[in-house]
Amino acid sequence: MPSVEIVVAIARNFVIGKDKKIPWHLSDDLKHFKAVTVPHPIVMGRRTFESVGRVLPQRENVVVTRAADLGVHDEHLHLVPSLQAAIELFKDSEKIMITGGFALYKEALALTDVIHLTRINRDFEGDTFFPDFSHLNFRLENKTEHFAPDLECSYSFETWVR
């Protein structure tokens, strides 16, 4: 059974999205996302896949959806009906990375071993939020602090484990 790991960037007010987009641009976070997820399978919901707009290279892309076809055909794109089906599909992988959105994060939290969290120390307007995980016995294992001049705030890369 693979380790189930969440990768997420959140604002101080737990916002993760607005109008199907991330409401900030932080190039260091995109590099961090790639470093954490390559070469592991990434699992996302349909709306997250549509907001990304393409199959991300160097990893298998798994979309949890009831749709039979998303109009994109790629050997590295897999459509599955559930999170459990995604885990079963890649049961021999070392890790499976959950990359959003809200419903998938909420479902996956109960199964998650590690959360790779980018915390933006500023509030943003949004319509999608990361679920509260404070009651789930995760502990902060690692944290590195940085500053984003473009966002005029600090941010941190955090690793939470249980």
UniProtKB/TrEMBL annotation:
Coiled coil: none
Pathways per UniProt: Cofactor biosynthesis; tetrahydrofolate biosynthesis; 5,6,7,8-tetrahydrofolate from 7,8-dihydrofolate: step 1/1
Gene3D superfamilies xref list: Dihydrofolate Reductase, subunit A
Pfam families according to UniProt: DHFR_1
GO molecular function: dihydrofolate reductase activity; NADP binding
Keywords: NADP, One-carbon metabolism, Oxidoreductase
UniProt xrefs under InterPro entries: DHFR, DHFR-like_dom_sf, DHFR_CS, DHFR_dom
Record EC number: 1.5.1.3
GO biological process, any: dihydrofolate metabolic process
Record field: catalytic activity: (6S)-5,6,7,8-tetrahydrofolate + NADP(+) = 7,8-dihydrofolate + NADPH + H(+)
Domain DHFR: residue ranges: 3-162
Highest taxon, organism lineage: Bacteria
Annotated family: Belongs to the dihydrofolate reductase family.
Protein name: Dihydrofolate reductase
Organism this protein belongs to: Anaerobiospirillum thomasii
